[in-house]
Amino acid sequence: MIAGPSLSCYCLLFLFLLGDAGAEGSQKAAPEQIHLSYPGEAGCMTVTWTTWVPAASEVQFGLQLGGVLPLRAQGTSSLFVDGGLLRRKLYMHRVTLRGLLPGVHYVYRCGSAQGWSRRFRFRALQSGPNWSPRLAVFGDMGADNPQALPRLRRETQRGMYDVVLHVGDFAYNMDQDNARVGDTFMRMIEPVAASVPYMTCPGNHEERYNFSNYRARFSMPGDTEGLWYSWDLGPAHIISFSTEVYFYLHYGRHLIQKQFRWLERDLQKANNNRALRPWIITMGHRPMYCSNADLDDCTRHESKVRKGLSGGHYGLEDLFYKYGVDLQLWAHEHSYERLWPIYDYQVYNGSRESPYTNPRGPIHIITGSAGCEELLTPFNPFPRPWSAIRVKEYGFTRLHILNGTHLHVQQVSDDQDGKIVDDVWLVRPRQGRRTYL
Length: 437
Ligand SMILES: *[C@@H]1O[C@H](CO)[C@@H](O)[C@H](O)[C@H]1NC(C)=O
Ligand SMILES: *[C@@H]1O[C@H](CO)[C@@H](O)[C@H](O)[C@H]1NC(C)=O
Ligand SMILES: *[C@@H]1O[C@H](CO)[C@@H](O)[C@H](O)[C@H]1NC(C)=O
Ligand SMILES: [Fe+2]
Prior knowledge:
The model is unreliable at 1-25 (pLDDT under 50). Helix 5 (254-272) links the parallel strand 16 and strand 17. A seven-stranded mixed sheet has the order 15-16-17-20-24-21-25, with helices on one face. By secondary structure, it is an alpha+beta fold. Helix content is 21%, strand content 30%. It has seven helices and 28 strands. It folds into two domains: 32-123, Immunoglobulin-like, CATH 2.60.40.380; 134-427, Metallo-dependent phosphatases (Purple Acid Phosphatase, chain A, domain 2, 4-Layer Sandwich), CATH 3.60.21.10. Bound molecules: 2-acetamido-2-deoxy-beta-D-glucopyranose (3 copies) and fe (ii) ion.
């Protein structure tokens, strides 16, 4: 009499445990945190995702939304062990699709027989220099308070962007809570990043365990695990690099020199190719200049990114000026600021009426207001002669590279429901682009 009920309880409990274990087992091989990146080769796109157990890495793709996906691509997976106490294990899968037709919409799903993702859609990038890429650009977006994300998601789904540039500082921080914050963030950006290539550079918030979460989670062109790399997009050459090598010297001082030498070689090559791809655009997390009210590197006259380490070694301002970089994208300050064309604190307007037509120095834009738990950064109350506009509102930047001579920049305010709060054209002639000297 007494044993009856308790026995059925055990049975129920046993069935419950069995059922749960079974469900979790299959979920663990199901892809999550799916995102795209452009590997730098025409007709290609890389799909990256995470599973919790080892599994094969396959992408099935095709042109039709419904029905079978006739094309297949295989890739590889690697084990990432987070540096936190739990040493959590993530299996990172990478598959590169090849032979994509320029500008064509594809449908894909990723995974293996152990579990497939839902279907996503992306448009293969156009190839060659003669098209007009549209980019969304921002930095400093966290898993908490990602103000720009809903609008970015809507606009991405509407097909407004070809590429997203996230200029450092993700999740706040990807390593936190044994890298669960990184998982949460990567799931949050999936509706954007699984549909357009999500291109990155490292920021200070990625520093933990020698940038290991950053290196493991993203798949950027080249062989530096995304620390520095470059690629061509329409009429532009885009260079992504790490400002963090100047600040976390204990991970290796030699990285400053290594990156600097790579940058110089890359800029030389880009200049030799300038007839084809006239724009040179850089992205790095910590700016050389800013007029915020804090004690960051960019508020110092001799900022490390601008002038290099003491003694003036490996400063980037001279390098970027020498090779005629057109536009420098930065973040880190949680605000938006655009500078007049500048070199060494001197303004080099094209002319007083049209400062950005034939500018005689690079243009800097600091766009770090996508939203995070640290909120917005105030500005110094004293305006600087080199600062053109300052916006302390959440938002992100639109970059439309129309052709080899015209580039359009807009700042979208989320605080003002998508209002354009800055709008400028950069115009440079095709001839004489190599230097400003
Ligand atoms: C940090 O990572 C870089 C890039 O992979 C590597 O060259 C360097 O040796 C690492 N530093 C340490 C201290 O492990
Ligand atoms: C650059 O152009 C802007 C806009 O016309 C103007 O306000 C600023 O004073 C100019 N700066 C210099 C140094 O000519
Ligand atoms: C580049 O785009 C601008 C703005 O639309 C246009 O005025 C200009 O004629 C274009 N240049 C070429 C060479 O197509
Ligand atoms: Fe930062």
